[in-house]
Prior knowledge:
Blueprint lengths: L1 H9 L4 E6 L5 H14 L4 E6 L19 H10 L4 E3 L3 H4 L22 H4 L3 H16 L3 E5 L3 H13 L5 E5 L19 H6 L2 H14 L3 E2 H13 L4 E9 L9 E2 L4 E8 L2 E8 L1
Parallel strand pairs: 1-2, 1-4, 2-3, 4-5
Antiparallel strand pairs: 6-8, 7-9, 9-10
Amino acid sequence: MQRAAQSWHREGRRIGFVPTMGFLHDGHMSLVRDARRRVGPDGIVIVSIYVNPTQFAPTEDLSRYPRDLKRDYALCRADGVDGIFLPSDAVMYPGRDAGAYSTYVAEESLTRRMEGASRPTHFRGVTTIVAKLFHCVLPDVAVFGAKDWQQAVVIRRMTVDLNFPIQIVVAPTGRASDGLALSSRNAYLSPTEREQATVLWRALNAARVAVAKKTVSVAELEKAVRRLIATAPAARVDYVEFFDGETLEPAVQVKRGTHMALAVFLGKTRLIDNARL
Ligand code: AMP
């Protein structure tokens, strides 16, 4: 991968990169199309597919994470992807099984709340793997989804802190027609859970309406959001947070432009979503 990337650079071609865990959907493909627009027709667009073991906790869904490489290839081909980088565990984590893998990249301030609090080892796995993928693919621009807002902010910070010469782009969240954010994990939902999963989007919209004309206290809005989510019997709130979209600092009051993120279990499946209100 590195040799190919170096030779593309020598030819003066820009490399656009979309890291994924596969089981691709149109949310992923909109990142691919964004990468293409940025590198131009002569540029190279690379998608990586790697279900990264270090970003899953032992109790999480690593072994049952959905996979369909054939379909992923077809989608990539249809959108003009130039290459799929499909590293093996042996390439990504040499010696890990023997306990010899010992270097990690960890962001230590933006990862304290939300996904970082609910999934304590998650972000260390993400930043480590993304740093490794950046070193393999050597992209000029990498595109991440707004769907994982905290992740995008953390990655952007990592590239600044560690001087990666890479432009980080955050592209809008792709949604189903009823508002549910597209996610590989939606495949786990039963028909009833899928129906009720729109409660995340409805909660974001209700909050947006609530702050459209006035400032509200965090406690008051969080209560209203939790009450709305409780109307979906299959739903259980993990967190609801209001914060500054750039710094991720918790909001004191919620107003137009404040960012909201939430994680909700639908049955056993944990879904996340967020929006600028
Ligand atoms: P994943 O395969 O879920 O790890 O996601 C790979 C990349 O796709 C990440 O940058 C995600 O934020 C992004 N992504 C996932 N779902 C969506 C979506 N519905 N819309 C836009 N980007 C997404």
